[in-house]
Amino acid sequence: MAMAAVGIGGGGGALGLLAPRRRAASWSGAGGAAAAAARRRPLVAVVRASYEAGVGVMATKVGMMTYFDPATGKPVPVTVVGFREGGNVVTQVKTAATDGYDAVQVGYHGVREEKLTRPELGHLGKAGAPPLRHLQEFRLQSVDGYDPGQPLDFADMFKEGDLVDISGKSIGKGFQGGIKRHNFKRGLMTHGSKSHRALGSIGAGTTPGRVYKGKKMPGRMGGTKTKIRKLKIVKIDNDLKVVMIKGAVPGKPGNLLRIAPAKIVGKNIPKN
Length: 272
What we know:
about 270 residues
C-alpha cells in the first residue's frame, strides 16, 4: 500500500505510469473567464443559398419523340414539354427589406378553388393571381421588373438555342441491388463461382468493426429530385404551346418540371 501511494503521488513507478493524467485547470484570472464565455457562446448558423441565373417557369413533361433538324435532316431526340391551363404567374416578389433576400415566387397549374385551402387562396388573392396548385421560388440578385400577378410567357423569356437547367422528380424504381443501383460488376456465372450478383464484402472485421456511412449498397433507387444542366432548346411551338428540348429530362410523362436559365459562371453567374 505504501509503494502504491508513493507511485501515484510522485508520478513515478509502475502505478504512476498507469494513473490518468489530469489537465491543468485554466479557470483562474481573466483567461478562465474568457474560456468560459467562449464555451457558452451560441453557435451561429451560416446559410449559403445559390442564386438562379434568372426567373424560370414550371411545365409538364409530355413525352419523348424524334425531331428532324430542317437544316441537316439529322434526327434529334427531344423531350416535349407542355404547359397546363393557367400557365405561370408571379404570385409574390420578395425583397431584402421585407424578407431578407430577393426572390420571385411563381405559381403554376390552375385548379378549382375547392382544391386549395383558405390560406392558399388568400395568399394568391393578395397577388391577384388565380387558384394555382404549385408554387416555387427563384432566388435572384435583383427583382426589378417583376410584379405580383404578372403572367410569364415561355416564348418571351427563352428562345431557340438557349441552354436551360431542368429539375424534377426522377422515376422511382423501388428496391434495387448493387449492380443496377451503382453499376457494380457481377461475379463469374461458371467455373464454380458461388458469387454471381451478391454484394460481397462491405468492410473489415475487427478494425473498424462497422460499416462506414455512405457505403454503396442495395436500397431504394430513384424517386428523388434530379437536375439536368445545360439542355438545349430545339424548338418553341407557340401554336401548340409546347417546347422541344434536346435530350431526356427527369420523371415520367405528366411530371412537374422546373425550367430555369442555365448557370454559366462568368456569364450570368458571378465568379465569386
